[in-house]
Amino acid sequence: MCLNEIVMLDTVFYFILNMSVAACFVIAALLIVRLIRPLPRRVVYPLWALAFFRLVMPFTLLTSWSLFNFTGGLVKRLVTIESITRPWGAIPGNNILGGTFNDTFSWASMNTIGAAEQYAPIVYKTETLRMVFTSGAVVWAVIAAAALITVIILYLLTSRQLKKAVHVRDNIYRSDMVISPVLVGLPHARIILPANLDPDGAEGRVILAHENTHKSRLDNLWRLLGIFVTCLHWFNPLAWIMLKSFLTDMELSCDEVVIRKFNTSERKQYAETLLRFSEGNRPLASAAFGRSGVRARIVNVLNYKRLTLAGAIASAVFLAAIAVALITNPQLRG
Questions:
Q1: How far apart are the first and last CA of the chain?
Q2: Largest CB tally within 10 Å, which of 213, 226, 318, 322?
Q3: pTM of the predicted model, to two decimals?
Q4: Strands of 182-184's sheet, edge to edge?
């Protein structure tokens, strides 16, 4: 690895660390929001995109509504886009939002680590800090690359195994290699059913409704994105907690979308089907019908209540406020 590559890797690692610190507050806030019982999971589930954004995007808007205005001395400095791009010259499209918008709203990254004096390239306050962060960058890159390669290999092996599934109709297949329904592939996702499951039976119809809901919401793509982001932030325990909670909310929210037109009897049938297919899934390849937090899912199905218009409006306003508070950075001071 040449010197320029190490310097670039060092810069990426420094910003990854800062993003991870900021994301910890966002993830913690979302874990608290999940505890608010009146909020259905189909409303909470999209909020995990805020955590993903924090974990991959160093720059965002500065507002007085940001959660980080209330974190005391956590934010050591705000690094503007201009301070990053200036050493390398103007970047085409940097003003794509228009002069008036950029004059009103500033874009910056939070520096919570506080170890650097300059950011393009990174110049550390002491030689010891430079050695620590340079070595850390190499370790981070090696483990992150190994994790991503492992995920890709497992995904390809699983997909290859399921290619032998027998076509039934449309995007529905049967295979004796699965004991629980799975949704495989992007962008043309296939529903793989166990060999003994009748897609036209009562269980088959609710399972297909569930898996097609996953397909229409592109949940397989979001699943892979969540795994990818977690691999980048493998050193952050909250990133793994985020992934587990996100996948649970994915299934809970999908259940809610499917059963919102069901009566009590149909919801009981759905819960019984969940219980039957509660094992044997491949998490890398599917947004599967069973297994994921099956007890919580059954309770959620049986206790499902439709949102009233007033409840929907209140939830929308609350979630919009949460989104603005979590996705923006604090305003510049002084």
A1: 41
A2: 226
A3: 0.85
A4: 166-169, 172-175, 190-194, 182-184
